[in-house]
Amino acid sequence: MAERSTAAVDVADSGDDPLTAKADKAATDGVATTQKTAEKTAEAMDSKAVERLSGEQPSITAPELHSGHKLARRYRLEECVTRLDGFSSWRAVDEKLRRAVGVHLLPADHPRARSVLAAARSAALLGDPRFVQVLDAVEENDLVYVVHEWLPDSTELTALLATGPMEAHDAYQLVSQVSQAMAAAHREGLAHLRLTPSAVLRSSTGQYRIRGLAVNAALRGITAERPQRTDTEAIGALLYAALTQRWPYDSDAYGLSGLPKGVGLLSPDQVRAGVHRGLAEIAMRALANDGATASRQDRPCTTPDELAKAVAAMPRVKPPEPVFPTPTDYQRTTYQQGTYGRPQARPVAASQPVIAPPAPLQSRTGTALKWAVSALLIAALGLGSWQIADRLLAKESTPKTPVTSPTVDEKPEPPKPISIVSAQDFDPPPQGNGTENPQAIELAYDGDPGTYWHTVNYYGSEFAGLKKGVGLVLDLGTAKDVSSVELSFMDQTSVELRTAPSDASSAPSTADGFTTQASDSGSNVTLKPTKPVTTRYVLVWLTELPADDGGFRGKLSEIKILG
Fold first, then answer.
1. 75-97 CB burial, b ≥16 within 10 A, e <16
2. What is the spatial distance between Cα 389 and Cα 404, in angstroms, rounded to a whole number?
3. Alpha-carbon distances of 445 from 67, 440, 450, 469, 559, rounded to whole Å
4. Spatial contact of 495 and 519, defined as CB atoms under 8 Å apart
5. Distance between CA atoms of 18 and 14, rounded to whole angstroms?
6. pLDDT digits (tens, 9 = 90+) for 127-173
7. N or C: which end of the chain has fewer CB within 10 A?
8. Whole-prediction pTM value?
9. What's 131's DSSP letter?
């Protein structure tokens, strides 16, 4: 059940959703109550007759499948997550790749089957790792099914908010990452339209991922005249809930209490004390709609791109300082009390008779022995004095060479950081396709160890035999002396340091065009060339990747070049 609660598909949220309800009143969530079910059963015959007379299509029921059923002889259904409005969602197993996946199922004659297929295929083409990836979209045997990633190690935002409001740093990361991801999706013409707390997941590394892009809305037939405004207001609602643990509308939803009815939209700092003022302003600017305005006269954010820029313009919210527990009281030891080593009191014993030592030798033999020892001592002193005098005379005869002490200026200078002018991803053909997440390159040298550039997901630590490696080419602007390169990874990674020729005016197009200078593996790696090297282009070449999310992926958080 823990796996289901953290990775289930967003298909059966509790509570009303004012964001999507305004887009399409006919699309609602939840399961009908027992009373409504009974009423529908009693009126079934009449409703079907009315549908036939009016020309409307009859209601579609979800496909009747069971656990153990296989799709395409590959995807084995394990557990039905929900069954709603003619479609069902399952946790399944991809027996070919031996990994868990999620599956949406609906009949091929469902009125929304074509739109679901189109939405799934469009979302799959995006390929942005900030979204839960669509793996397959197929129409087969009177069924339409969409296969997507399943993330058992991630936690829904709904579960995070159930424990209380977020810290300011966590809320800042939430709105920053989600707004940037949605801005990228809208640039490709994709909208979510159902961005609720259950659609946002946080991984064990603190990265937020969005699931159901375009697909969740297509499953429910949700549309919007202003999709960018709809998604922006949804992000503002998520930030509002993260700051206050309240839903910014007058109805309860997603396990959160709504605002009091009749008072309108209150600023987060009016709902809860101690809320970060800058984040409260961002939430109000995103939610400025239907009479709601920001507490200051700032321009409302109407698109995810405007919201992402507003978040980037505010001062970065730092993480809280770690709190260390106070040490417990302890008993002072004997040594600390100052009694260690002191003699303990002992009972006085009876006096023992003292035995006098024997008298020294008084015979002729003793006298001769004394004279012999004295003679040996005199001879030893004479010999020692002669050797000392001989050494002193030898030192005076040899000329002394002046010894100069090194000055302060002669000390070697410590290495200095070399700034990176630009960088580009390096996945050269024919094995590579020429691109490797170029949109996240700057995160590898932005000075923030919490952000990172990462490779795409491979099905083998050595790129499943598809290629020898991938990496980043760093441009230093001009040829410079490089003494070492410090790299920080999110997990154990094998990497090589390669450099272009010193006279190269552009970066080589193949990995063999660079010269390998050093190699190592680990999470914090320092690569030093065996001899001094001068170059303009530095290649960080990843050769073996760590396991991540059911596959293998390299994550590079910081690069520092010293010269």
1. bbbbeebbbbbbbbbbbbbbeee
2. 29
3. 47, 10, 11, 20, 5
4. yes
5. 12
6. 999 999 999 999 998 999 999 999 999 999 999 999 999 999 999 99
7. N
8. 0.52
9. B
